[in-house]
């Protein structure tokens, strides 16, 4: 069973929808909650986002631990999954207030980072590091499943900004 099969199976679990962990990025680039399996698989053009993937898969949780250790980060590290078909919408060009590591686990993922377009794939170029404050967006030229690992701050640290 490949990772895509595991994600399809994951998206059939009602717990994800009850805990509001699944959302969609629509063609207007806005994110909206998905409330059911039927809505997740309704055939509309969208990117599916699953939050807190580190709570779902042990290997993803272990990856967050590795990333924190490797980067010397002492705050939380989250993992969000993005599943996009070719041509699916994504967030507009934006920046995150913390460092993120993008990892392509299925297909190919095109990312624009600071004006440069790169393509990630699970074998030859699976990851890219994006420092806080760098403008980026996914362009979704291909079907892909990507995990975004975020070295977030504690909420108390954000109050000091």
**Percentage of residues in DSSP E strands:** 25-35%
End-to-end separation in angstroms reads 45 Å
Percent helix: 10-25%
Name the CATH class: Mainly Beta
Low-confidence runs of at least 5 consecutive residues: none
Quote the CATH topology: Jelly Rolls
| Helix and strand composition category | alpha+beta
* Main beta-sheet annotation: 7 strands, antiparallel
What is the chain-wise order of helices and strands? Answer: HHEEHEHEEEEEEEH
Q: How do the strands line up in the largest sheet? A: 2-1-3-4-10-5-8
How many E-type strands? 10
| Number of individual domains | 1
Which architecture name does CATH use?
A: Sandwich
The CATH superfamily is identified as Cupin
Which quaternary structure do these chains form?
single chain
How many helices? The count is 5
The overall average pLDDT, rounded, is 92
Task: Walk me through this protein's architecture.
The chain is globular. It starts with a helix and ends with a helix. It is built from five helices and ten strands, in the order H-H-E-E-H-E-H-E-E-E-E-E-E-E-H. Strand 1 and strand 2 (31-33) form a beta hairpin. The protein is of the alpha+beta class and 161 residues long. It has helices at residues 3-10, 14-18, 37-40, 58-71, 155-159; strands at 22-25, 31-33, 47-50, 77-84, 100-107, 109-113, 116-120, 127-130, 136-138, 144-151. It has one domain (3-145): Cupin (Jelly Rolls), CATH 2.60.120. 22% of the residues lie in helices and 32% in strands. Strands 2-1-3-4-10-5-8 form a seven-stranded antiparallel sheet, with helices on one face. A three-stranded antiparallel sheet has the order 7-6-9, with no helix packed on it.
């Amino acid at each position: 069973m490949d990772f895509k099969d595991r994600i399809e199976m994951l998206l059939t679990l009602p717990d994800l929808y009850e805990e509001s962990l699944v959302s969609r990025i629509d063609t207007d680039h806005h994110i909206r909650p998905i409330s059911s399996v039927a809505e997740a698989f309704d055939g509309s053009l969208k990117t599916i986002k699953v939050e807190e993937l580190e709570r779902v898969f042990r290997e993803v949780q272990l990856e967050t631990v590795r990333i924190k250790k490797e980067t010397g980060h002492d705050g939380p590290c989250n993992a969000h999954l993005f599943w996009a078909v070719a041509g699916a919408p994504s967030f507009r060009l934006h920046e995150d207030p913390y460092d993120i590591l993008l990892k392509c686990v299925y297909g190919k993922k095109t990312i624009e980072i600071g004006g440069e377009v790169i393509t990630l794939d699970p074998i030859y170029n699976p990851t890219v590091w994006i420092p806080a404050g760098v403008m980026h967006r996914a362009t979704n030229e291909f079907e892909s499943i990507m995990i975004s690992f975020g070295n977030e701050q504690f909420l108390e640290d954000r109050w000091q900004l």
